[in-house]
Amino acid sequence: MNTEQKKVLLVEDQKVIALTTESWLVDNGAQVDVAVNGKKAAMCLQNDYYDLIITDLMMPEMDGIELLTWMQKKGIDITTVVVSGVDEPSVMARVKQFPNVSHIIEKPITLAQLAELQTLLYD
């Protein structure tokens, strides 16, 4: 396994989910920046490079789909995992159209799903 520290942008407005996910990622060797919405994530993406983005869909100010659209327009092609409690087929179909979205994970996130993220980072 590659042990080089990877940088993750976690975009999540629910504090408990953000803290839990961030803690797990840090414990498993990642450096993590947390943004509470897509607008803050866009600011991070303009100023830094990330190996992986993990984003919620439903957030204030700029939601996950708006963030993905913005990234596509800016030519930002970073592997992205979408985490959401939304199970509406039309929304999921829209998310799947973004080529950088590698996984869609339904909330609540399990440890097994977090382990899959480690595979994305280090394989």
Note down, in words, how this protein is organized.
The protein has 123 residues and is α/β, with parallel strands linked by helices. It has a single domain (7-122), classed as Response regulator (Rossmann fold). Helices cover 44% and strands 21% of the residues. It contains five helices and five strands, in the order βαβαβαβαβα. A five-stranded parallel β-sheet has the order 2-1-3-4-5, sandwiched between helices. β1, α1 (15-27) and β2 (31-35) form a beta-alpha-beta unit. The radius of gyration is 13 Å and the shape is globular. The mean pLDDT is 91.
In short:
The protein has 123 residues and is of the alpha/beta class.
Please specify the SSE layout and strand pairing:
Blueprint: E1 7-11, H1 15-27, E2 31-35, H2 38-47, E3 52-56, H3 64-74, E4 80-84, H4 89-96, E5 101-106, H5 111-122
Parallel strand pairs: 1-2, 1-3, 3-4, 4-5
Helix pairs in contact: 2-3
Task: Based on the model shown, name its key terms.
alpha/beta; five-stranded parallel sheet; 44% helix; 21% strand
Q: What sequence of helices (H) and strands (E) makes up the elements?
A: EHEHEHEHEH
Shape: globular
CATH structural architecture? 3-Layer(aba) Sandwich
Structurally, the number of domains stands at 1
Task: Determine Rg (CA atoms, Å).
Answer: 13 Å
Strand content: 15-25%
